[in-house]
Structure formats: C-alpha cells, structure tokens
Design a protein that fits this description.
The chain starts with a strand and ends in a 20-residue tail after the last strand. Helix content is about 35%, strand content about 20%. β14 (about 260-265), α7 and β15 (about 285-290) form a beta-alpha-beta unit. The protein is an alpha+beta fold.
C-alpha cells in the first residue's frame, strides 16, 4: 500500500497528516502518544539537537521564522553553524517527521512539505536546499492553496470544473488565492496573484479585542460576552472581504466567475467566519471539521498520489521500507477505528465548530 505523509509549517502551528489506501488523509490516534500538531518553535540543547514545539520554563524558544517572505527573516547560531530561516523550517519538518515515524529510516516514505503561495523561485530554492541538507531531498514542495485544493477534490464527488477561492485565515495573516479545480485543471492551478494581509487572522483579532476592551468602562463586559465576541469577529471577517475583491480584480474576474469558497486555517474555526463569507459572497462555503488540518491533509494526499503515479516507488525504490509502510498503515487504521471510520468531512457554515481565536506565536520565554 502506498502511503503519504504531509507537513504544513505555519507561523504559529505545524501540522502533520497521513494519507492511506483510501486516498484521503487520516489523523493519528492521539492515544498513541504522538501529536499531530506542534507549536512552530525550536529549542536546541547543548549538543545542538533540535526540539520542535517545546515551551521551556526558562530560556528562549525560536519562533516567527516560518515565513521566508517577511522583510527580515531570523537566523540562529547553533554551535559552529548559522541557520537561516529556511534551515529552521527544514529542521521543523525533519523533527516532525522523525517524531511521527520514529527513529527507523524513513527515506522511502512519500513525503510532502508545504509553503506559502507567494514564495519567489529563489525562496522555494532556498527551502529545497535546506530540506536536502537535513536529509529530506525526496520531499515534494507544494504551495498551500494547491494542497488545500487536493483535500477538496478528494472529499467532494463529483467536482465541477471551475474557479475556487481559497480563504486562508491563519494565526498571523489572511491569504486569499484563486485556483482552478476539477478535470482539465492545469498543473499551475493558481489564477492571478494571491493577496495577503496581516491585518486579519487570529493575532489581529486578539489585538482588536484588546483595543475594544480598553475603551470600555468595564473591559470584562466584552471578554465575558459570547455575543459581543461573535459580533466583533463578524465585523472583522466582513472587513476582510475587501481583500477578496482585491484578489478578484488582480485576476480580472468577478465573484460571478467563482463557483465556491474553501475556508481553511486555524483562525477559521469559529462559525462566524464561514457564515459571514457565505452571506457576503453569495457562494457555497466549504470548511473542514478542523480547517487548520486542511493543508497538511491535502499535502499527504498529493504525496501519496505522486508515489502511486510513479508505480509505487518513492526515491527510486518500490513500495518503501516494510517498517515504514507498516507503521503508517497502523497510524491510518488506528485513527479510522477511533473515529468510527469517518474522515474529516465538509461542514456547512451553521454546523462549523465554534472555537476561540488562535493565539499569537511564541516569543522568548522566561516562566
């Protein structure tokens, strides 16, 4: 059986997913003791060994390095090495994959790592080189909305060819991308130029709540009121629609040309996000049960498909190591059993799971 593993490394969280024989992504069974989500932080011990997602009681955790397109990307000095932001991202990918698969060799497992859609050719090349340095040369590099599109096409039957708008509301920013879906879609699915803004997302909404509460005579009246938080979040999402129309103008299309909206990202869990978008854009809105996992799930699906298209070979050898195959099959099977055989499905806006705003990324800690 061909199995794929996808890793999505965001500014705040990193997510890992496995796609099994069904062609769809399956989540790990949390009872196995291995997480599926990590904070995107790194700590290094005295020997230079990296730990992903660790929150030290004292000292510093490296964070805010996952986006290579930011104006000033951080670096880290570890022993005699200077690690660039691309090196840090690759180190996270290596740590997550190792923790998921264990200490046994995993060179023959079908892997995919995602990156933001706006990366230049040079940034993608930097990330590719960094992955090769940590032993992940075989990993496919996939831009995030394309990975999310793979999840959509794997969970929808049939998929009508057309345009889909991917609304990615993460912890640190909002990205809006137009993609082509369905039969006949080109290899380069992205249409026009994606747009991105840090004015929206979990972090921006948290700042908005703080600012609004500071203006009130009793700040607790906002933080203690679900209705007030819901109303404020609805306003926040409504304002972000301007970014949607900017994306459409760049691509020289209108909302009438768009068939559906796919909502993804950790800050997209609250039901108000999909509800407001559906009302304002007048298009079907699709959101997974856990929208933070959509990109990783799609990446796992694409990794699996790439291996199958190559005749079941990964890295030049057929089928992968028996150990790796057995372990990944157990991962997918255990999760399916724990979840009653159900995969992450599509949820209409009214049924979307309400959740709190995504927290900001970690900063140097001294607790």
């Amino acid at each position: 059986m061909t199995v794929g593993l996808g890793v999505s490394i965001g500014t705040v969280n990193t997510v890992c997913a496995v796609a099994g024989e069904s062609g769809r992504a399956a989540h790990r069974n949390k009872k196995k003791g291995v997480p599926t989500t990590w904070r995107t932080t790194l700590t290094f011990d005295s020997a230079g060994a990296a730990r992903v997602g660790r929150i030290p009681k004292h000292g510093r955790a490296l964070a805010e390095f996952a986006d290579l397109s930011q104006r000033s990307t951080p670096t880290a000095r570890v022993g005699n090495r200077t690690l660039t932001a691309a090196d840090l991202v690759a180190t996270v990918a290596q740590g997550v994959i190792t923790e998921t698969l264990g200490a046994e060799p995993d060179e023959n497992v079908a892997l995919a790592v995602t990156h933001p859609v706006g990366y230049s050719g040079e940034q993608v090349a930097d990330l590719r080189g960094a992955l090769e340095t940590v032993g992940l040369a075989r990993a496919e590099l996939i831009c995030e909305p394309v990975a999310a599109t793979a999840w959509f096409e794997a969970t929808q039957d049939p998929v009508t060819p057309g345009l889909m708008l991917v609304y990615d509301l993460g912890g640190s920013a909002l990205s809006v991308t137009l993609v082509r879906v369905g039969a006949g879609a080109p290899d380069n699915r992205v249409v026009g130029t994606p747009v991105r803004s840090s004015e929206y997302g979990g972090r921006a909404f948290g700042a908005l709540m703080t600012k609004r509460a500071s203006r009130l005579a009793s700040p607790r009246s906002l933080t203690d009121s679900d209705a007030a938080i819901s109303a404020l979040r609805s306003i926040h999402v409504l304002r972000s629609v301007d970014l949607v129309y900017k994306c459409l103008r760049i691509a020289d299309v209108t909302m009438a040309d768009v068939d559906r909206v796919l909502v993804i990202g950790g800050a997209a869990r609250p039901r108000e996000v999909a509800k407001v978008l559906g009302e304002e854009l007048a298009r079907p809105v699709i959101v997974a049960a856990d929208p933070e996992r959509t990109i990783a799930d799609g990446a796992a699906i694409l990794a699996q498909r790439a291996a199958e298209a190559a005749g079941g070979t990964v890295g030049g050898r057929r089928g992968g190591s028996a150990w790796s195959q057995r372990r990944l099959v157990r991962v997918a099977a255990a999760v399916l059993i724990a979840g009653g055989g159900a995969m992450a499905g599509v949820v209409v806006p009214e049924a979307a799971v309400a959740a709190g705003t995504a927290h900001t990324g970690l900063v140097p800690l001294d607790r």
